[in-house]
Please model this.
Amino acid sequence: MSIIGAKAPLFAEPFMFASNFQPPENWDRSGLPGWTYASEELFALEQDVLFRRHWMLACHISDLPEAGHYIGFDIGTERALILRGKDRVIRAFHNLCRHRGSRVVEGSAGQCKQALTCPFHGWTYNLDGTLKSALQPRSFPPLDPVEWGLKPIEMDIWHGFVFIRFQPGPQPPMSRLLARFDNLVTPHGLADMIRVDGEFVFAEADVNWKSMRDVDNEGYHVPKAHPSLQDLYGKDYVDEPYVDGASLSIGKLNDKPRQFWSVREYRKLVSRLTHLPAPQNDSWIYIGIFPNSVIALYPDSAIFYQEIPTGVKNTRQRGAVYRFADENREMRAARYLSGRIDGLTADEDLQLTKWTDEAPESSGFDGIILSDLEYGVRSHHDQLRSLMPVFNDLAAPPAGTLAKRNSMLAESTPQETKQTHG
Model:
């Protein structure tokens, strides 16, 4: 039986948790049909079914250190504003003025110390989202400050990471969805970590977002495509597929890396760090969150990264790095080197993404075959198929019929299957 849909056991030892998985016998090794990476109609449906109705990782609480600090988060046609109030509470709102729909704030981050003022007509909002005043208020009927305040967005915080969801969807609260990882991440003290300066968007490519996710959802390519990662943890790396909307991958650091100076020096520095217990003190840990995000925990730092689709063939990579609050010189040096290794890996993955994304356009392309070591790709695809059964069609539906076709297929899909994969 496939592990997808089975409840994952709560192992105290994370290596047991990941390596315990075995793919089912005679599983379907095919990937998604090539048309699903280039369809404008499917992309429009994804915006609603996936990105509007699933949890999106927006930021970390340390990105909002003081009252009035805000983070802007855009995806598809949605735009959010995550804001810390004067009462220190973090809230999420639609970045949408209630007067004429203008953005209340612009940019990916900033601070408004006393209030938020819309740049269009000057409507002003308190830091708890309530309406403070409208310009020339006598030209309006009485405006209730709550009713005409910024519209709230559902929000959940897990170990310091802030998730938002624009519309109700199939996933439970993130604190419940990711609860099985609590024991694994607690030693890192994620909620106390501090943001490292840098822009959220760190790369952009003319590819479909699923091509980026496919490359990241398996470690089979590490030995050939990522020599620095192979030197770092290639001897002991395990993947667990998506289970109830989340996946786990763990790379235990090699005892004696030989090939790269940066990896050798990083391993030496990490071996002297004593702030984490085993196995967290010598592992790189990745937690995948359906549909598009990953939180990674290192002995020296934590990061997140995600795919933000801006078009059917355009995707931004967004993320950030967080350091330990009591970071010393050795931790800082280790963080520099882990960032160097990550940077090389990201560049290598970007090239692989471009090559695989263009493949379905070739007259010689007739699909793919997945290794047992790529079952994580299949598990992600299975969740897409269960939410949007039109992904099962080998050819694209006739123009203008995709949404209707998907609705018809969804109505005929057993309810238990939807619940299993949602």
About this structure: DSSP finds twelve helices and 18 strands in the chain. The first helix runs from residue 14 to 19. The CA atoms of residues 130 and 146 lie 5 Å apart. Confidence is low (pLDDT under 50) at residues 1-19, 416-422.
